[in-house]
Amino acid sequence: MELFHYHYWTPFLEETEKWYEALGFSVVLRMGKKDGVFQTFNPPMKWEEFRDTNVMFRIIEMRRGRVNVTFGFGKRPIFDHLGILVSEDEYKKICERAKNIGWTVDGNNRRTFIHTPYQMKVELQLRHDVVGDGDIRIMKMNIILPTEEAVHTMKSVLEGLQEIEYMLGEKTGLKQVYIKDTEYLDVKDTNGVVVISEPVVSIQEITYDMRPMIKEFMVQNWGDDLMVSQGHKHHLSELAGFVAMTEDSIIGIVTYNKENDRCEIVSLDSIKERKGIGTMLLQCVEGKMQEIGCYEMWLITSNDNTHAMHFYQKRGYHMHALHRGAIHEARKIKPTIPLVTKEGIQIESEIEFRKRL
Which residues form the N-acetyltransferase domain (predicted)? Predict the structure, then answer.
């Protein structure tokens, strides 16, 4: 099963179309009634050509990758239904469960609708040509339902569909849609639906050919690629590690230095915080060390970096030692290390963290 679609009625048709167009969606269908007859107003036709002709739009369909959004005219924004791509076996089981509790199942060659008692429908789609190709897809929807019983019943009918998160509220509605996309977004459409997108992230082990790109990343984010820990000088672009990438862009890097049976996390950097990127990168290093029989992880952070301290402690690292004045010595190797933070905290000591895998 795969969530692929949502539909609502709205008085803001042109605004909604332009909003999704700005997110990279393309119109594949505009169908409406003009002079009592259903007609299509598909691209390359523009709104200027029919805006003032009193077209009553039944459906405007837009697609991007494996995401399909439709909307038609309504007096106020109302969520109508969500759509699920299913196999023949999944289709039969869902329809059977719905019929067993008295829900109406209305199907034809194009699609099947399950009518729930919660002022929303569920579309089951066997035809996979209703979506495009690629990695862009719906990861999760937050659906509002009126009661705990409604949530339990929906979960039982759509058993196995993990991508819906249910919330309680006075009225049924679509609150949030999470899309796997090419960039990070957290925006609200013209009908009040919050669309949150996150890029397709791939984790790759650093190769020799990546070094120029990694050095450029380090210079942009750290000022240079030189780091000092425990009096040792490291050029980050020359170390082993992993990169997190979206298409051709680096959004995170971890570098490490293994000596004997110990592995130091030399640097860990993520452009986007609270997206799980740093955790994934750290886990890649830990996993690799376990594979080769290296079980002692350690790292150094400065006394001002409370964010890093919280991050590592949450992931099983413990504070092992305080090296007072170590950063004064590090400045002899790297004079550009600041003396104080913007908040006025003196940067003078190294804090060592360790973790046994």
Answer: 201-338
